Input
Amino acid sequence: MTTSFDQLIDRSQTQSVRWSSHPKEVIPLWVADMDFACPPCIQDALHQRIEHGIYGYTKASEHLREAIIAYLQRRYQWQILPEWLIFLPSVVTGLYLIPSLFLETYEQALIPSPAYHHFQMGLEQSTRSFVKYHFTEQSGRWAIDFDELETLVTSQTKLLMLCNPHNPGGTVFHKDELEKLGSFAVRNNLMICSDEIHADLILDTDKSHLPIASLTREIGERTITLMSLNKAFNFPGIGLAWAVVPNQAMRQKIQQPLHGLIPSPNLLAYEATLAAISAGQTWHTELLNYLRNNRDYVMQRINRLPGLKTLHLEATYLAWIDASGIDDPYQRMLDAGVALSPGAQFGAPQFLRLNFGTPMSRLKEALDRIELTFK
Output
């Protein structure tokens, strides 16, 4: 298979959140979906299901469960049992659900900073308190400040939230980092909720994703892992996620609000996920190669501009740009005709997040605009 990721696809008439939120002359490189058509195998599976003509209530098939189990074993050498899987409409659903189910009103969570904004919003909506643990620049990458983390635990701290790989920093955690974090959770009797939606977007060829729950049985028994192929195969508008929950009591607690407050995934999402696992790997390999090239190009262009800096990005298609030398960097970019995600959304106002999951010609045009403004 040779996919043309260079193809410019018009998304203007699709009610795309990304493409309809700014004037048409602005290049939108913000919200995390890509401008690439999803794999032909997914398109074929969706066409086949739609042609059936009946779209009734649908559940996950045993075939899909078996495929996910085999996928986790093949990709991450993580052996799970079928009963550990709980299907959700999205990872975000889990980020809102977990705090409300597992924290009492007087208890508290530790959340990463900077972080995908739904970590904080999930806690705020459930009226649970939180304390932020921070990532700092260490050896050219964003890493957890473990010294600070150790000082943040109180008797009310019960939950550790993790984004693995990290969004927006693009960090792929080393095994020793995850072991240290797991040991911290065990020592302080903390439950772990790990968002691992970017697991299949590792750009560095010498690195691989490691689910924190796979380290030891003791860590796994206290961990809820949230996963999805929506990002890696670009079908977030269809949506499906699964939680891996080895602990039976925790599974039962999550299953209680399902099909009531929490709807089942869209029936087409089951088909898309199964197709991605079964026949999408060649496309996915080509995607990673394209994204690597885009990443390198973004880093080269951004790091030669005064007032802007980005560290080496190990994973995701989202560049985290330090613009602390610029006044109102988000508006400056917008004035240049490029819409990025404002760092304030992630708890870091002087940063910007740039989505480079787009054809190179569009990325080049956006960076030309940025360079014209900032140079």
Summary: The chain has a mean pLDDT of 97. The CA atoms of residues 107 and 155 lie 8 Å apart.
